[in-house]
Write a structure and sequence with these properties.
The structure is a single chain. This protein folds into three domains: 2-88, ATPase, nucleotide binding domain (Nucleotidyltransferase, domain 5, 2-Layer Sandwich), CATH 3.30.420.40; 105-150; 152-192, no CATH class. The chain contains five helices and eight strands. It has helices at residues 36-44, 67-81, 105-116, 152-161, 182-192, and strands at residues 2-7, 11-17, 23-29, 59-64, 86-88, 123-128, 131-137, 143-150. Helix 1 packs across helix 2. The longest helix has 15 residues, at 67-81.
Length: 193
């Protein structure tokens, strides 16, 4: 069974692939930062609630946009499973052509996924995370460029934190585009903006 690990700025996401259709996923917070020992303790029992034994995991692949956490997560998983996880980054061999030595692992992985899923023609891959990214890729796997903007939750936290009277709200679709109270107005701005 393959365990895929996505280390992001806000969350660490896990996906255990029993097959292409039988996928078990779970998430833990990236913050506060943890040591290798803390990850080892946290990861040692993380499979049990999902009915997975650690012996079922035969391969691990890690993608990370948080370099300080990458080594700690890798070492903790290596101690648990007794084999080295594969770290994916922009230099991992694929048909993707990019010209940036700064391309994030998340953007690279998104480009690879879009290209290998046989989506025909030019593509725009949108990733809703801590940052909102738009990646343009052509039919040959050449990355044309990227747009990076604040993610929805990041923008909402900034809006609430930098204003005197705007409250923390639940991020959900309002009943109409035009709000009639502060909460629905903010929800409209976040969902439709």
């Amino acid at each position: 069974m393959l365990l895929a690990v996505n280390i992001g700025n806000t969350n660490i996401r896990f996906a255990a692939f029993r097959s292409e259709t039988d996928i078990i996923t779970w998430t833990i917070n990236s913050k506060p930062p943890r040591t290798e020992s803390e990850f080892f303790a946290k990861f040692s029992n993380m499979y049990k609630p999902f009915g997975i034994s650690k012996e079922e995991i035969t391969d691990i692949v890690i993608g990370s946009v948080v370099p300080p956490l990458t080594a700690s997560v890798k070492i903790a998983l290596q101690k648990i499973h007794k084999f080295k996880p594969l770290i994916v980054d922009r230099n991992t061999p694929s048909a993707i052509v990019h010209t940036s030595n700064q391309m994030g692992t998340d953007l690279y992985a998104n480009a690879v996924a879009a290209h290998y899923q046989n989506y025909k023609g030019k593509k725009i891959v949108i990733d809703f995370g801590t940052a909102l990214t738009f990646l343009g890729i052509n039919e040959d796997g050449k990355v044309g460029g990227v747009v990076i903007a604040p993610g929805i939750v990041t923008a909402l936290n900034s809006l609430v934190g930098e204003t005197a009277q705007l409250p923390t709200i639940e991020l959900k679709e309002p009943k109409s585009v035009l709000g009639t109270d502060t909460e629905s107005c903010m929800q409209s701005g976040m969902v439709y903006g």
